[in-house]
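User: Can you predict the 3D structure for this chain?
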Amino acid sequence: MASPTRRRVLRILAAAAATSLAPRASGKNIEWRGSALGADISILFSSATDGSTDTAVASIICEIERLEAIFSLQRGESELARLNAAGRLDAPSPDLVHVLARAREAYAATHGKFDPTVQTLWKYHVDWYAADPERDCPSESDIADAIGRVGYERVRLAPDAIELPSGAALTLNGIAQGHITDRATALLREAGFRHVLVDLGETSAIDARADGAAWRVALPDGSRIGLADCALATSSGGATRLARNGDHHIFDPTTGRPANHWRWLSVAHRSATVADALSTGLYCLPPPQAIAAARASHGVRLWGETANGEGVTS
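Assistant: Here is the predicted structure, written as structure tokens:
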């Protein structure tokens, strides 16, 4: 959650996207591929026309760039960067308030395991391993100060201002990408599109395919699931290793250390924002607790592989 490269860096390559997008038609399907969010993106239209997709993709690229200016940790002028630097942000954008409110819901649903204030833990561990990626893990006393700055319940959130406790900092890399995916999906729906599969790091399906079949999406173990009017997000510590000892970028806010209960975990929900946040928070819970939390959350499906290699479906 805390890593700038959690799955796809929140960094827009707008110029590359604008020049590299090109349609590929196969029957009634049109697939657009480009570069945004620091990686490849794709939008697959089932039964559409070239002209209509051109306009839709251009509007999505503009929306990604707008949201990047809110959520990026790499851009010093972004709303999130300014909030972390000053500890307070007046007149925040509705998007930032919305995402932080959804984060609070995920915080409750995962028993405090989805916690955007783990940014302090991310920074501490990155600095710890920067000089020597082979050194031992930091001790309890080493990370005690960073853990003391974690606690999303202490963040003040209101429509007119956001205020952080002293020394705290936020990362939204475990939820903002889902919000970006939801916004792209909303733009397509507003433009009248149906039968579309959007992949912006999180995957979201608008309706089923034009032939009525569900979209088939691969999980990390190679199995496939069907999506229709649903989004899918996956978390895996192995995606970003910080050191050769196995420490990775998804931190348990309680222990202050990388979570070690799962090899990977995928969550499906109608909202990509919810799926994104829950996949991160549930990754920090032992499998029985994660399954129970998923079942207690309306409209959630879960797949995963535990640390000992056991497959889980809920």
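Confidence is low (pLDDT under 50) at residues 1-27. The chain is about 35% helix and 20% strand.
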